[in-house]
């Protein structure tokens, strides 16, 4: 995968994960152009299109578009399911996820994504294992919070 | 919102985000952001040392502002400081910031690499993963230099936790992609390949991406992975849906891993070992069989996962191109998908069939679906699907169906999206030329192309039709007649005028006998378009006019009149003016013999690779030209220009070598030089003739 973009129906970018080195300027241009192209498509159209020299796989969940750019030899259908799995993870974590969750907890969305995909490839496809890893990290947060309160430092 | 409080939500951040969302205008947003930036700047510069929580909050705010699209030029130092915090959330935010806002300051890089090194050697798996994620996200050369030797060690060490192995594998992959010279697999190769046998499916999933990439670059070193991959695939494909527990996705066992295994196998030719090959063929057959079984679930996720594996298996079958039975089955399966309810599947089937069309074994099988594909071209609502259908028609075209396919593509072109017209035009031109048995059909097709999509007919296309008409005696009369008719249309494209002008200039005599296309009629027809055309076209027309004077002396007076008028001989464009003046003079002082010699019919062009093919290749990249093009001779023994090629005339005069064709085919900058040269040569010749005749 080269990059993943999440954006609203008004074209506001909610998450942008880049797996290839590109300058800021190039990223902005790509985001702008691609978002326009996808928003121009009608609902019943297929989930794949060719754009520049990439294949684009996208799906809309409620008010958010999830859009991935993959290379010519990549498998489109499995990419669709990567998107779905990511949505499932967000959903489990936030409890019935909506766009607002991703807006106000944007850093969490990135952390969850990193547990699932790394360098553009799936690293763990068991939903249970990914969520476990995230929960463990969250536990560490709680512990570290507690440790900052006097008297509990022995816990940490 | 989360049911349980997930750690410490930073209230200040939430408030700031709310403020931004409530801004009514872009200006208000920028104002609020600038206020915050000033605040953060002062906090960072302030005397009081900030506590970890505050630092984290401000760094996170900066990150948010950056992701909104605004530039951030400070905060890196504070983010790097967070890396050395022993609080997990602070580290996490620090890493996120530096992964997103990559900074090339060498001092910062040194500090970052230090922090990463500490985390990697911390033996705390969560910290190690954070560090590995950061390296994978940034993947810079400096990181590769610092860590490329350490990560393989972590990857294969016995005491590394599974989650860390997964991150290490993909981290190494990223470093390999960006700095392959720094990632030396040497001593690690066999142990990395062995990861394919790991009992943890997640480790296998991650490792296989790394192995696939390494195999592509070093196939020999990694070839032991093939048999391991086949065993793994075989075990997955034959497992029941309960075997793989959490790696089963909507009743499909390990779909991601299956697809990756099939991808890995596409890096290699079919296995040589009979047993391994047998097992693999069995696997592929099972996958094809499963496609015919009733689905275990109605959910689209189930069918997507199942079909993802199916399509990848078909890709492998096509890649091997050696099992006729499997190829035909694959083709049939795709044929079924061509008429599936789901648009996605129809799209993928069309795409997949394109590659299948170039295989010797399945080319005929693909052709049987021509009616379905033509129907898709006409009736699909989605333009991306229609485009795939057009691509497939191009790929499946051969002598038996060329006329039908070209006709369909022409009619599609009339309503096609502008963005794809140029490519379609190139393809139609290539097909028309390649499969032309009857060259009058070819001429008709190109002229139709110009009529339908004139703007998108590039130079290569109309140069080619002229080259072919020049080289083939049998189609010259037909060409002259057809362009003459085409030019009668009230609104005709400029490219048509170019082609028409040239052809009538060369072969107008072949239709001059008919009073409806007498010389004067031809001239008036061309001249009626003159004022509508651009400079290059007018230049071409002027050349056509001087040729007319040679062909039809009776038109001399009329044409000279035109050449003489101010708008020609005083034209502000140098090229036009020069031509008008030169041609006028040439027509006045040269004897008929000299004129006939100078303006003799164009000799045939030498055979060269079609520049149209070259242009299509350039447009679409190396994969664009299907095997059929390259295997042309093998399959049909087709010649580009068929029939009896006229050899060059034996009595070629100096003028031909220079040839007036130079005036058309060379770029404008060289044209002047050529004109000068010709001027000198013909002047010399004319003078010598004059002196001979007294």
UniProtKB/TrEMBL annotation, chain A:
Any Pfam family matching the protein: Clat_adaptor_s
TM ranges: none
Protein's UniProt keywords contain Coiled coil: no
PROSITE patterns in alphabetical order: CLAT_ADAPTOR_S
Cellular component GO terms held in the UniProt record: AP-1 adaptor complex; clathrin-coated pit
Source organism superkingdom: Eukaryota
All residue ranges annotated as the AP complex mu/sigma subunit domain in the record: 1-140
Gene3D superfamilies: 3.30.450.60
Sample GO molecular function, one term: clathrin adaptor activity
Membrane topology: Peripheral membrane protein
Alphabetically ordered keywords of this record: Coated pit, Cytoplasmic vesicle, Golgi apparatus, Membrane, Protein transport, Transport
Subcellular location: Cytoplasmic vesicle membrane; Golgi apparatus; Membrane, Clathrin-coated pit
Primary site of residence: membrane
GO biological process terms, semicolon-separated: intracellular protein transport
SUPFAM superfamilies (alphabetical): SNARE-like
Function summary: Subunit of clathrin-associated adaptor protein complex 1 that plays a role in protein sorting in the late-Golgi/trans-Golgi network (TGN) and/or endosomes. The AP complexes mediate both the recruitment of clathrin to membranes and the recognition of sorting signals within the cytosolic tails of transmembrane cargo molecules.
Family according to the record: Belongs to the adaptor complexes small subunit family.
Subunit field text: Adaptor protein complex 1 (AP-1) is a heterotetramer composed of two large adaptins (gamma-type subunit AP1G1 and beta-type subunit AP1B1), a medium adaptin (mu-type subunit AP1M1 or AP1M2) and a small adaptin (sigma-type subunit AP1S1 or AP1S2 or AP1S3). Binds to MUC1.
Protein name stated in the entry: AP complex subunit sigma
Automatic annotation (TrEMBL), chain B:
Primary localisation category: Golgi
Domain Clathrin/coatomer adaptor adaptin-like N-terminal: 30-588
Domain of life of the organism encoding this protein: Eukaryota
Protein transport as UniProt keyword: yes
Key words, A-Z: Coated pit, Cytoplasmic vesicle, Endocytosis, Golgi apparatus, Membrane, Protein transport, Transport
GO BP: any one term: endocytosis
Keyword field contains ATP-binding: no
Membrane association type: Peripheral membrane protein
One GO CC term on file: AP-1 adaptor complex
Subcellular location: Golgi apparatus; Membrane, Coated pit
Protein family according to the UniProt entry: Belongs to the adaptor complexes large subunit family.
Protein name: AP-1 complex subunit gamma
Organism listed in the record: Echeneis naucrates
Organism placement in taxonomy: Eukaryota, Metazoa, Chordata, Craniata, Vertebrata
